[in-house]
Amino acid sequence: MPKRLLIANRGEIAIRIARTAADLGVGTVAVHAEDDAASLHVRAADEAVNLGRTGVPAYLDIEGMVAAAKATGCDAVHPGYGFLSENAGFAEACEAAGLTFVGPRPDSLRVFGDKAAARALAESC
Length: 125
Known about the structure:
Blueprint: E1 4-7, H1 11-23, E2 27-32, H2 40-44, E3 47-50, H3 56-59, H4 62-71, E4 76-78, H5 88-96, E5 100-101, H6 106-112, H7 115-124
Parallel strand pairs: 1-2, 1-4, 2-3, 4-5
């Protein structure tokens, strides 16, 4: 069980993750773009980090997310859905930084991102 979780997303999914983590006794860190500073997901977490950019690009910055997790003492990262949740490179960056990626392993993300490879894997199972 992680002790401190960075939520690498925004909106309703980030709020749900923060609430569930709180129920489990896991500390949370929300990230936000400059223009999302007043959003509810920021208030739902124990701590918040401004990503220093505006709009969606702030939430796609892999290096920024990993840096925010490390700077706030997180040991795990939850990507939510969309944005970075299907990005094998993000999962790899988390692992390389010693962070637990709450989601599929990078090799699984890579296979499922390729329809032909995913179909072949399913048929082989």
